[in-house]
Amino acid sequence: MLEKEEITYEKTILIGVISQKQDETKSKEYLDELEFLAYTAGGNVLKRFVQKITSPNPKTFLGSGKIQEVLEYVEQHEIDVAIFDDELSPGQQNNIEKILHCKIIDRTNLILDIFAQRAQTSYSRTQVELAQYEYLLPRLTGMWTHLERQRGGIGMRGPGETEIETDRRIVRDRISLLKKKLASIDKQMAVQRGNRGALVRVALVGYTNVGKSTLMNVISKSNVFAENKLFATLDTTVRKVVIGNLPFLLSDTVGFIRKLPTQLVESFKSTLDEVREADLLLHVVDISHPNFEDHIASVNLILDEITTKDNQVEKPIIMVFNKIDVYKPEVIEEDDLITEKTKSHYTLKEWEETWMNKVNGEAIFISALNKENLDVFKKMVYEKVKDIHVTRFPYNKFLYQDYEDLQ
Ligand SMILES: Nc1nc2c(ncn2[C@@H]2O[C@H](COP(=O)(O)OP(=O)(O)OP(=O)(O)O)[C@@H](O)[C@H]2O)c(=O)[nH]1
Ligand SMILES: [Mg+2]
Q1: Per residue in 357-370, pLDDT tens?
Q2: In this structure, what are the phi and psi dihedrals at residue 18, rounded to the nearest 5 degrees?
Q3: Helix (H/G/I), strand (E/B), else coil: 141
Q4: What pTM value is reported for the model?
Q5: Which tens digits make up the pLDDT trace of 246-264?
Q6: Among 119, 131, 174, 246, which is least packed by CB within 10 angstroms?
Q7: Cβ-contact 384, 318 below 8 angstroms
Q8: Ligand 1 atom, smallest distance to 372 CA
Q9: Ligand 1 environment, Cβ below 6 A
Q10: What single string gives the DSSP state of each residue in 170-228?
Q11: Atom in ligand 1 nearest the alpha carbon of residue 366
């Protein structure tokens, strides 16, 4: 009931808003991302609806005229699912469903659905299931028929409220069971992490689809699943990597996204422990993406959320700008005196200078796919890891030369 096994493309529409916080360009960017998410989940997007609003209608989110327009389209084209970019309250979701008679999904729901499709191991399945139940719990009012099949009709008699209460209890029981199951796996994982000894730990982090797994594969000769869809990776992979003669552990983990559902951050806590406990973070960025600066901000927000909780000292971070092979700035013709230069016209060199200054030189521009600049990247990682390594094994200091002397 909670997960879809195979992808059958469903007829989909997207619904977004233009508001004071979100102008037309932003709204378009968000819907582009939502469309990519929808596609990853198995949706074929036929149309987008956008409404200018100051505040959403508390009952139906959209205004009554707009929702009528959407309804006509849904009926004409036999739409299966309407996806809202914004979070809907349980009430709104219900009301809209009653009007449109198709599946109503919001962004959180969609992301949870993708995670459910992608979860391979019993560990990530448990994490996703927990997040799904936590999303479901406040939405149970009026949704009790949802659980009807599972219960095989027993307890279906009596007034609705009682049934909702029963459902709530079933869901709460399930949540506490899943939490217990996770806690026991977490313990095992913590032991495993402990067994890895004092090797320096490096974690790849970044927005989804930026090339973390691809980079992991090229520098560790491993074979992590990478593809051009969102959230290809859910489970963490850890590999021992040796650069020169210096060994360290490199982990590849789940990608981040704008407004990552809090339920997921919560239930993926131990997957994210890898990030929390890392000595060095490699923050991978897809510089060819028009919104890469927003992506950096979203990632930093999530990193703050998962790392500052334990009052940790700030970790060293290297900003890794990937996909330089497909980066193309917009060009202003020489005789064009009107177009103003914006960031979209920056050359790679200009971006490099900007970022080198912003992060004290801890930035590097590469292509993981074409293996461009990887040697400089390795040198940078080597030097950083070495600095951390020798604080941990001071007697080893003489072992590690400068990267150049190793060649
Ligand atoms: N052009 C180009 N494409 C790249 C580069 N690095 C990765 N890609 C492509 O980008 C897509 C996503 O790569 P992944 O390695 O799966 O990205 P990820 O960050 O692990 O993504 P998630 O696990 O989904 O969060 C794949 O289609 C890769 O082939 C690069 O340097 N240049
Ligand atoms: Mg990946």
Answers
A1: 888 889 999 999 99
A2: -110, 125
A3: coil
A4: 0.85
A5: 889 999 988 898 888 878 8
A6: 174
A7: yes
A8: 31
A9: 206, 208-214, 226-228, 230-233, 255, 322-323, 325-326, 367-369
A10: HHHHHHHHHHHHHHHHHHHHHHHHHHTTT--EEEEEEBTTSSHHHHHHHHH-------S
A11: 31
